[in-house]
Amino acid sequence: MKTINALISASNVSVIKHHKSILKNIDIQINKNDFITIIGPNGAGKTMLLKCLMGFYKPNFGKIQKKDKLKIGYMPQSINVINTMPMTVKNFITVRKKYDDISFKQVVSEIDIRQLVDKQLSVLSGGEMQRVLLARSLLNNPDLLVLDEPAQNLDISGQLSFYKLIQEIYSKRDISILMVSHDLHLVMVSTKKVLCLSNHICCSGKPQQVAQDPEFISMFGKDMANMMAVYQHTNHTSQIDNHLIDGEIK
Amino acid sequence: MSYYGESIAHSSLLGVGLGILLGTGINFGIIVVCLLFGILFLWLQQSKILSTDTLLGVLAHLALSIGIIVISLNRIKIDIHAFLFGDILTVSSNDLWMMYLGVILVIFLVSFNWSSLLLVTIDEDLARAEGINPIYINLLLTTILTIVVAVSLQIIGLLLITAMLIIPAATSRRLANSPEQMALIATLIGIFSVILGIFLSVEIDAPSGPSIVVVSATLFFLSYLFNFLIKKD
């Protein structure tokens, strides 16, 4: 009985909105210690799939089962920092959370935001805000971390360090990660499974397998597929820069 | 969404008219009509046919107009002017008890649901992820606004209630460092504005609502000036 062990399992999920099929017969299982990245073009239904899996949105067809007492930490793409309300970072991270001082300090040092704690939300930069959102989603020690395009508003070095942080969290914590991301070449080294979505699941599997799938190549082009395949060859390193150096020496 | 309060306030005149017409009393009429209006608005907003601003603009003025038509067609003898701009002389001791009750209810509802209200204000999806259904919180907000409108209608007047929803909070924003501080300071500023405004209205024989708003707007500008001077140092 695998369904009961899974954190979330969805079978045959379909969503129809305004006579348009947003999701079609989606089957997905999120197990303990999974690291799943959902990729796909704009309008592929990636965010909708997350919403269905987390239970924000009830699909028109299909079934979604969640494990009992599953703790989900959710990090949205961004939030509208409302300038009309003053709020410190600490206040924001802890609002409506049951927490103790130790776990708060732990998260703060893990995400490295000690110098931000007393700042107002309205003065944070894009990268700082992402870290704060991540810290909030981790405060309750979730079993599953759900990230919706977490590095979308960051520059390339910000993206690199953010994904490195995610990789660290994944390796240190007993946690599963479900992530929507466009930054395919950056997440390849961390993710264990890629799910390519275009209203239906085009292909899924290990990054390398997906990269060779004809549907993937027709969607993202040969260059992207080659890039992914290359990254996957050096699967022992978790450092992207290491790998680049390797490539040059060869 | 600041104008959500205004729309609910505008719909209250219909409540006043119907309350008198059906003999249920003004307060009861206001509460029923405002709540129904608020629910209708939330439902239409949920369906996402129109943008929130358009929806508020259409519904608020429609509600106000229907209210005025109902009152004038039935030749109900009330001073519309007093309801539009507030007239403290229309407040009876019975109304005062209603206000006490309303204030206690609002304080109770707000403090009991404070963190959920905060989180939904920041981000609805974040709230959903933590098990809050934003629909309930929005319904709660509608209820709170309805009570506020009902108890302050006679003093401030329905055209100016929005001012008291926005101005003290905006003033307090300059001075506060947390949402809790902001709520507390805004309340104090509101109380102070009402007291000073009523004195002003007695002194120069002006209607109470506009006097209160003038005082609170003056405080608003002073807080900006204060902030500006402090930042300069």
What is the fold's blueprint, element by element?
The complex is a heterodimer of chains A (250) and B (233).
Chain A: H1 2-5, E1 8-17, E2 20-30, E3 35-39, H2 46-54, E4 61-66, E5 72-75, H3 89-94, H4 101-111, H5 126-138, E6 144-148, H6 156-172, E7 176-180, H7 184-187, E8 193-198, E9 200-205, H8 207-212, H9 214-233, H10 240-249
Parallel strand pairs in A: 3-7, 3-8, 5-6, 6-7
Antiparallel strand pairs in A: 1-2, 1-4, 8-9
Helix pairs in contact in A: 4-5
Chain B: H1 2-21, H2 26-47, H3 52-73, H4 80-85, H5 93-112, H6 114-122, H7 124-129, H8 134-156, H9 161-175, H10 179-204, H11 208-232
Describe the structure.
The complex is a heterodimer of chains A (250) and B (233). Chain A is 40% helix and 23% strand. Chain A is built from ten helices and nine strands. Chain A has a six-stranded mixed β-sheet with strand order 5-6-7-3-8-9, sandwiched between helices. A three-stranded antiparallel β-sheet of chain A has the order 2-1-4, with helices on one face. Chain A has a domain at 32-44 and 143-192 and 200-249: Rossmann fold (3-Layer(aba) Sandwich), CATH 3.40.50. Residues 233-250 of chain A have low confidence and may be disordered. Chain A has helices spanning 2-5, 46-54, 89-94, 101-111, 126-138, 156-172, 184-187, 207-212, 214-233, 240-249; strands spanning 8-17, 20-30, 35-39, 61-66, 72-75, 144-148, 176-180, 193-198, 200-205. Chain A has 250 residues and is an alpha/beta fold. Chain B has 233 residues and is mainly α. Chain B folds into two domains: 1-158, ABC transporter involved in vitamin B12 uptake, BtuC, CATH 1.10.3470; 160-233, no CATH class. Chain B is built from eleven helices and no strands. Chain B has helices spanning 2-21, 26-47, 52-73, 80-85, 93-112, 114-122, 124-129, 134-156, 161-175, 179-204, 208-232. In chain B, helix 2 (26-47) packs antiparallel against helix 3 (52-73) and helix 10 (179-204) crosses helix 11. The model of chain B has no long low-confidence stretch (mean pLDDT 89). The chains are: A alpha/beta (250), B mainly alpha (233). Chains A and B meet through strand 5 of A and helix 6, helix 7, helix 9 and helix 10 of B.
